[in-house]
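Hey Z.,

So I finally got round to the adenosine-5'-triphosphate thing we talked about over coffee. Here's the setup:
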Amino acid sequence: MALLELRNITRRFGKLEAVSNVTLDIAAGEFFTLLGPSGCGKTTILRMIAGFDAPDAGSIALDGRPLAGIAPEKRPVHTVFQSYALFPHLTVAGNIAFPLEMAGRTRDEIRRRVGDTLALVHLEDKGDAYPHELSGGQKQRVALARGLVNRPRLLLLDEPLGALDAKLRERMQGELIALQREVGVTFVFVTHAQQEALALSHRIAVMNAGRIEQVDVPEVLYSAPRNRFVADFIGTINLVEVSVTATAPDRLELAAAGLGALTTAPVADAAPGTRGALALRPEHVRIGRAGAPATLKNRVEGTVAEYLFLGDVTVYKVRLADGSRFEALETNAGAGRAQFHAIGERVTLQWRHDAGVFLRD
Amino acid sequence: MKRRVWLWGAALATYAFLYLPLAVVVLFSFNDSELNASWVGYTTRWYRVLANDTDMLQAAANSLFIALAASTAATVLGTMAGIAMQRWRPPLLAFLVLTPVAMPEILLGVSLLLFFRQVLDLTLGLFSILAAHVTFSTGFVAIIVRARLAGMDDSLFEAARDLGATPWQSFVRITLPLILPGIIAGFLMSFTLSIDDFVITFFVAGVGVTTLPLQIYSMIKVAVTPEVNAVSTLLMALTLSLIVLAARFAPETLRARS
Ligand SMILES: Nc1ncnc2c1ncn2[C@@H]1O[C@H](COP(=O)(O)OP(=O)(O)OP(=O)(O)O)[C@@H](O)[C@H]1O
Ligand SMILES: [Mg+2]
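And the result:
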């Protein structure tokens, strides 16, 4: 049985349906992420789980027990707020002790567990400091410690890394994974940063305008997006308008207007004539001089419109015959300087017969 | 440079205009003369006269009692109003609480008098003064408490509940300590407003009870004796120290008052 079950949750604000018919199962011990653009309803879902808001329809159950009508303080669920919400008049130790005091723990136990938790987040020497004396990363750790100290069944994290700069953010991501593994508390994490979601999560639910588009492990989400929204939202992807011309056991034959015949990996019951998009990751596309010998099944010609040298990789943006843009990514693993294709140069793009995903309309 | 001198001059002139009369009052409270005409010599005798003036002492006792009781009540009511205004933003409440603050005192005095006499048929006295002072002080406390809350992250209060605090525990452990400086400043502000209020008190005091400002006024009607200077000096010292104290607790209060 799942630890947390959301069944057909809907929440309306006036005319706006902020959350539409969301159903989710989250298992104990999981690092689960809600990923989606701003305003898609992530915070609203967290608030309903925490008890600050209630669904207009549907039910939420924790450990099989319905949560409807249970006050926030009675739920074994704690939240790490984006603004951290550390109590400014309490010390770090006072903040961390707060949930233990509310739970009526004994003095000795509180002292011991505050000490243990401070050690867990590497803040042993900051117990007597006040929140305003801490750096952003330290505040973040105190907020995590406060959320974890009383071992909730579920820890909700609403964009906890949003306020940190890039470097610190990366380090905190690492700490977050380690922390979750160490304490074994189930995390429900909210972010609109797809890379962060991919790096941290066991499973991700991609949301769009109040709906869940796809729930999967990061690898599947990345390599087999179920629709255009997910494909586009996670990473970069090339989308080519196509229609199915024939099916084969090992591939799907496609026709793209202006680009000719293409193939991709087979999908279930895509009859000839089905329209959709071919979604292809830039790293699957090999770029070479025009007229170079063809080695891969799919091939299109184009002109380099621009390139971005990113150090480890170079991203080429290529204009195709039909006027669309295509991205190809080349790793700069060769010795010395990578060989760049110049802007305006004619190039051939090619990819394997089974690379790419067909997304039915 | 020239401009600086000019500005300093203007500032000094303004301060002189504001504070010279007060300085004269303080000075002449130590003047060894029955008349407030010219400086004769130093004495503290007017303070001794004051200490034996039973009418004045009674008025002072009334004023202190009213100020204490009214500002306590206004602090409780105003704190609740301030919290409600910040948390739920009911449109009418802000209007109701703040109107007495903005209303001309004379209007408030007249309307309270009519209300107490015509509507409630109350005998004017200590209670009517008390009620009137609570009326105009509550709004000030509400403004100060609200300003304090407005500067705070709303998720603090949700965090308290989230971490296991009941609404009451959350109020006592988190909300109250955070707004305490505002509450204290509001109390001190109400106290100064109450102790030196003249206009409204004048209307609702009736005949039996008198307060310090009313007593001073009735003495001046006869003659401005140095005793009036002495009591004014004491009142001024009290008010000033309370305002300084209030400003220490909540620097935004001085702005709220003007
Ligand atoms: N209390 C409310 N009253 C009215 N509308 C609301 C309320 N709370 C949220 N909304 C609306 O519901 C939608 C979803 O909001 P929500 O805060 O859940 O988005 P989000 O996914 O967390 O976005 P972000 O990434 O920007 O935090 C938004 O359009 C928002 O304006
Ligand atoms: Mg949000």
